[in-house]
C-alpha cells in the first residue's frame, strides 16, 4: 500500500468504500423500526459510513488573568472575541478542525457509494496517547428512490424515525451544525468572596456570567453556521458544558468554561398539511 499524503480518504477507508461500491451485502447502524421508517420515507440504506481523524492538540492557548473592562472590572472573554485575551482560540479551532474533518470524510464515503444522505450520525471525541485526540463521525448512508436527486449530500444526527417525521411535515435535513466556545474569567475579589465557604447561599455572579456568556456564544456560533448553510432553522441534539479552574500564579485563579451545541440545520420544502406525493419526493437543496 502506497504512502498516504493526507489528501482525500485514508487508504483503509478508500478500500472499504471500494468494496461497498462494488455491490453485495450492505451494513447499517439502523434498528428494525428505523429501517421501516426509512422505507416509509422513500429511502434505502446503502451502507455504514465513517470519518475519522487523529489530531495532536499541542498549543491550545491560554492567557492568565482573564480580562478586565473599564474601571478594572473583570469581564468574560470568549474564544471568538478576537482580542489578545481570547486565549483558548487555538484549542477551539482544533476542535472545529477535528469534527469538520471527520464529518467531511464521512460525506466523502457516502458520495463514493452513491448515497444522498447520512442519518443517525454519531459524533465522538476521545483522548488517546499523549496530546492526541481521535474525532469520529459514523452513520448510515441512504439513497432516495425518487427521480428527483438532492443537490448535495445531507447529514443529520437525528435517527431515521425523526427524519421521516420531519419529511412528512415538510422539512428536510441539510447538514450537521455546531457551535463551540471556550471562555475565561478571572476570579476577582467579589467572586472569591461569594464562592467562599462562609458566604452562605448566595449567587456567585462571576460564575453565572462566565457560564451564561459561554453558552450564549456557542449558540451564536451555531446560528452563524445555520445561516451559512442557507437553511431555515435547526433542531438541537446535544448541549454540553464543562468548567475548570487554572492557577497561573500563587493566589491567582481563573475559571474556564467550555460550551458546545450540536444539531441539524433544516430547510422547508413544502408548507401544506400533507406531503406533496404519496411517497415523499426529495427536493434539491439550493
UniProtKB/TrEMBL annotation:
Family matches, as SUPFAM superfamilies: YbjQ-like (SSF117782)
InterPro entries: UPF0145_dom_sf (IPR035439), UPF0145_YbjQ-like (IPR002765)
Pfam families cross-referenced by the UniProt entry: YbjQ_1
Domain of life of the organism encoding this protein: Bacteria
Family: Belongs to the UPF0145 family.
Name listed for the protein in its UniProt record: Heavy metal-binding domain-containing protein
Amino acid at each position: 500500500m502506497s504512502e498516504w499524503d493526507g489528501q482525500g480518504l485514508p487508504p483503509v477507508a478508500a478500500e472499504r468504500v471500494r468494496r461497498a461500491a462494488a455491490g453485495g451485502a450492505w451494513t447499517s447502524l439502523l434498528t428494525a423500526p428505523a429501517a421501516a421508517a426509512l422505507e416509509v420515507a422513500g429511502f434505502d440504506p446503502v451502507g455504514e459510513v465513517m470519518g475519522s481523524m487523529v489530531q495532536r492538540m499541542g498549543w491550545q492557548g491560554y492567557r492568565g488573568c482573564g480580562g478586565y473592562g473599564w474601571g478594572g472590572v473583570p469581564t468574560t472573554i470568549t474564544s471568538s472575541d478576537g482580542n489578545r485575551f481570547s486565549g483558548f482560540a487555538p484549542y477551539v479551532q482544533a476542535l472545529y478542525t477535528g469534527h469538520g474533518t471527520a464529518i467531511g470524510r464521512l460525506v466523502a464515503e457516502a458520495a463514493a457509494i452513491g448515497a444522498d444522505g447520512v442519518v443517525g450520525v454519531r459524533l465522538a471525541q476521545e483522548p488517546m496517547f499523549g496530546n492526541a485526540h481521535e474525532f469520529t463521525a459514523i452513520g448510515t448512508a441512504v439513497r432516495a428512490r425518487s427521480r428527483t436527486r438532492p443537490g448535495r449530500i445531507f447529514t443529520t444526527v437525528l435517527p431515521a424515525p425523526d427524519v421521516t417525521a420531519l419529511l412528512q411535515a415538510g422539512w428536510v435535513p441539510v447538514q450537521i451544525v455546531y457551535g463551540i466556545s471556550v471562555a475565561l474569567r478571572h476570579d476577582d475579589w467579589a467572586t472569591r468572596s461569594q464562592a467562599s465557604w462562609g458566604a452562605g447561599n448566595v449567587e456567585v455572579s462571576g460564575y453565572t456570567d462566565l457560564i451564561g456568556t459561554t453558552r450564549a456564544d456557542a449558540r451564536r456560533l451555531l446560528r452563524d453556521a445555520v445561516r451559512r448553510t442557507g437553511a431555515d432553522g435547526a433542531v438541537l441534539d446535544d448541549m454540553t458544558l464543562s468548567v475548570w479552574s487554572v492557577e497561573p500564579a500563587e493566589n491567582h485563579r481563573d475559571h474556564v468554561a467550555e460550551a458546545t451545541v450540536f444539531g441539524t440545520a433544516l430547510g422547508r420544502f413544502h408548507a401544506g398539511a400533507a406531503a406533496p406525493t404519496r411517497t415523499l419526493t426529495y427536493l434539491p437543496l439550493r
